[in-house]
Amino acid sequence: MDNRIKNCCVGFHRLTIVDCTYGMQPMKLHQYPLAMLLCNGELYNCKELAKEHDFNYETFCDVECIFHLYQRFGIEKCVKNLDGVFAFALIDMEKQKMFLGRDPYGVRPLFRLTSASGMLGVCSEAKGLIGLTREQNGDKKVIEPFPPGTFEEYDILENGGAKLVRKQVFHLPGDKPTFKPFILYEELSQDPLENIRNLLTMAVKKRLMADRRIGCFLSGGLDSSLIASLLVRVAKEANLPYKIQTFSIGMSDSPDVIAAKEVADFIGTEHHVITFTEEDVSRVLDDVIYTLETPDITTVRASIGMYLISRYVVENTDTTVLFSGEGADEVCQGYIYFRDAPDAKAAHEDSIRLLKEIYLFDGLRADRTTASSSLELRVPFLDLQFTNYYLSLDSKLRQPKDGVEKFLLRSAFDKTGILPDRILWRHKEAFSDGVASKKKSLFQVLQEIVDKRMPEPFDPQTAKKNYPHCTPTSKEALYYREVFEKSFPNAADQFVPYYWMPRWVEGITDPSARFIKHYAAPQK
User: Fold this and answer.
1) Binding site: residue ranges?
2) Scanning 10, 135, 394, 484, which has the fewest C-beta atoms within 10 Å of its C-beta?
3) Residue 91's beta-bridge partner residues?
4) Which amino acids does the record list as binding L-glutamine (predicted)?
5) Distance CA 264, CA 198 (A)
6) What is the pLDDT averaged over residues 491-498?
7) What per-residue confidence (pLDDT) applies to 132?
């Protein structure tokens, strides 16, 4: 570390995606020799910013624009002008300042450790900080996720440590972007369906930026199928020198595998099918919980397949960047429970709530399961302009219609030939049913694994005594919590505000969609 900053060290393990030669970190520039940047992210408007503000880039790395925006405009305007996903630490040695920032939906992870004496630590994963809680002096140290859409400013103290002097939220879910968008708002048509198509297509197109091979997760559901089809189209327009690879996973004859194969044949990808067994689930379960850094029930369940498929991709292909459909359920009211919303206003408010917390649940799952295999995930449904426009439409239009969730999104692509009708209008399945065989759901497989490892009866009173926060209400939940506590003792209070659960559904204690009365998938 530079000796102008006392008692401080920085390090970065980089997954090279853009400018693999000159974009190494910590990044320093000749123009700004007293500043240093560490950033995990992709900033899609880096070239547009250079043209707009006449920046003189020294590298071909997209995150370099953070230096120039900060030096020219200060930290607030800097973060407000970033179109992309990011978690960064910017050190200004001249002013003895440190700035932290995270993208509005927390697509890129960031954890922060603080203590009463001024210790400050930041890392993409909590496991990189947990050791510090047992070191140094007797100060109590707290590790917590850094909030999305927020930046913080710290004074670096002469005797070591840092003091928080400013914290500001710069973007909330659904806010209109303050940067110049790729599609100007005045260029949008009067037809919301056309605008939805165009904005989602642009969200995919801008994310093509990569020096590595691009592929796509393909579950066979609406969200990933739309993204995969749009990706194939824009990749052809961009003349990418390879065929897009798609990846699906399931247990033998799972519904997802069958539907994904139909989509892959329709759009013309190089398709890979990964089959997993009950033994695979048993083998990776504890590793998945450690990787996720959460004991949340539905997050753990939904991560099994994504963890296994990510391992396959890194071990068997040269694809490094993967697109996926994450975010669609939150933005477009895709969860089955939205059919029970009391009114359009309540449904809209719950979309906003889900987006505020996506970094703790589905966003966390998607990032950790891929990043743990050195893969990079890209999520067009969480594009800031797309989410702003979609959430600005009449709330009644965005509700489920005729028993079909995401009706507006489906209608936008109806009769366009982008997908087979059966896929475009396919009902939503619980993940544990979609990837499982017709004989047994993943939900049941996990129950049986836990029963073998914890044969004693579940005692709710003991669970309440041991874990007053987010108390496990089943043997499965208790097992996840105990595995979590081995690596992250007493951290659940900061990491998990509550278990993810569907809303407006009475009499259930399990988060699976299979317990909701509207659920349409066949029960095993």
Assistant:
1) 62, 249, 324-325
2) 135
3) 36, 98
4) 62
5) 22
6) 96
7) 85
Strands 97-102 and 150-156 come out as antiparallel
Q: Which domains does the chain have, with CATH numbers?
A: 27-169 (3.60.20.10), 191-440 (3.40.50.620)
Range from 6-10, 154-158, 238-242, 367-371 carrying the lowest mean pLDDT:
6-10
The encoded tokens of residue 285 equal 């379960």
Tell me the C-alpha distance between 91 and 209, whole Å: 27
Number of H helices, E strands in the chain: 19, 13
Instruction: Please give the single-letter amino acid code of residue 214.
Output: I
* Number of residues that make up the chain: 524
Four-CA torsion 41, 197, 236, 46, nearest 10 degrees: -30
Other C-beta atoms lying within 10 Å of the C-beta of residue 152: 22
Please give the span between the terminal C-alpha atoms of the chain, in angstroms, as a whole number.
58
CA distances, 452 to each of 481, 482, 484 (Å): 16, 15, 18
Annotated binding-site residue numbers for ATP? 249, 324-325
Give the Å distances, CA to CA, from 69 to 32, 63, 64, 73, 318. Answer: 12, 11, 9, 6, 34
Binding site listing for L-glutamine = 62
Q: To the nearest 5 percent, what fractions of the chain are helix, strand and coil?
A: 40, 15, 45
Separation CA 47–CA 57 (nearest Å)? 9
pLDDT at 524 over 50: no
Per-residue pLDDT of 267-320, as tens digits, reads 999 999 999 999 999 999 999 999 999 999 999 999 999 999 999 999 999 999
| CA 359/CA 104 separation, integer angstroms | 10
